[in-house]
Design brief:
The chain is an alpha/beta fold. It has 2 domains: about 210 residues, Alpha-Beta Complex (Spore Coat Polysaccharide Biosynthesis Protein SpsA, Chain A); about 80 residues, no CATH class. The strands form 2 sheets. Strands 3-2-1-4-8-6-9-7 form an 8-stranded mixed beta sheet, with helices on both faces. It has a two-stranded antiparallel sheet with strand order 5-10. Strand 1, helix 1 and strand 2 form a beta-alpha-beta unit. The radius of gyration is 19 Å and the shape is globular. The termini are far apart.
């Protein structure tokens, strides 16, 4: 059975149209069930665009079945995704997750379903990513493993999602060495995102999912060439500004999914560190300082 697709939309009609158009061109679209979760308007300023998006999704065709959930209240992205993914995996045991700002390769669904089938019972694999950062084509195989999930077109299983915990107390399980590894040797600020959630300055879900994957010593499958392009970094999103540092070329050929050693790719880890440093120069030293400063504070939450 093909994995159901959960698509989360809000108030970006042009992005939603492009996302659906690309997804519908996938080889397995006509055999896939599509569940669309439309979040309710936060205020009257977005009401018109929310309704415009709902007009678009009500007319979508090209899938085996389309089920639409229109929220009356504004859940926000974190609650919407957590509750929506939980609902789908509880029913079907697996899920492919999309947001309204992702353009996919025609081979996206094939890759996702092949990977979800192959690693269905592999406990150490908790997440399948179809998108990549622009780190280049570097390995001889079509896929590799890394410690961090990427949420731009992804999938998981109920046996993995059941481990998800969004309680801030999860920070107590980290020591300084773990925080450094969590931050890719101090080249990115994932720990700071947990801190911002703790203080209520942001409310996100992804960094908690990553923390759970990390604490379970689990891994994430990636394609060597991206099957997803994020078009939302144009200043229109709820949690992201305008940037082109994430731009990738979509793979023009299928990604072959077959068993590779379930261990983190050293080259991938190195390339991600270099990439993070390239988009945030100088972060390494400041992050090392912050680790020393915050460990003492947050180990006593």
């Amino acid at each position: 059975m093909l994995a159901p697709i959960a698509l989360f939309v809000y108030n970006r009609p042009r992005h939603t149209e492009r996302t659906l158009e690309a997804l519908r061109k996938n080889e397995a679209a006509s055999e896939s069930e599509l569940f669309i979760f439309s979040d309710g308007p936060k205020n009257e300023n977005v009401l018109k665009d929310v309704e415009y998006v709902r007009d678009i999704i009500r007319g979508i065709t090209g899938f085996k079945n389309v089920v639409i959930t229109e929220r009356q209240e504004n859940y926000g992205l974190a609650r919407s995704i957590v509750e929506g993914v939980t609902e789908i995996v509880d029913r079907f045991g697996k899920v492919i997750v999309m947001e309204d700002d992702l353009v996919t390769s025609p081979f996206f669904l094939r890759y996702m379903n092949d990977a979800l089938d192959l690693y269905h019972d592999e406990r150490r694999v908790m997440h399948v990513s179809a998108g990549t950062y622009p780190i280049g084509d570097f390995c001889t195989e079509d896929t590799y493993f890394l410690r961090i999930p990427l949420c731009w077109g992804w999938g998981t299983w109920k046996r993995a999602w059941d481990k998800f915990d969004k309680k801030i107390e999860i920070m107590q399980q980290f020591n300084s060495r773990m925080i450094s590894g969590f931050n890719f040797d101090g080249t990115y600020t994932y720990w700071e995102q947990l801190e911002l959630n703790r203080t209520g300055k942001i409310n996100t879900w992804f960094v908690f999912w990553y923390a759970n994957v990390f604490l379970n010593n689990a891994l994430v499958l990636f394609p060597n060439r991206s099957l997803v392009k994020n078009i939302g970094h144009d200043g229109s999103g709820e949690h992201c500004g305008k940037s082109n540092v994430y731009d990738v070329e979509l793979s023009s050929v299928p990604i072959k999914v077959f068993s590779v050693p379930i261990q983190e790719s050293r080259e991938a880890f190195y390339r991600h560190k270099q990439y993070f440093l390239s988009i945030y120069p100088g972060r390494y030293l400041s992050t090392l300082y912050n680790i020393i400063r915050i460990v003492k504070k947050f180990m006593h939450i």
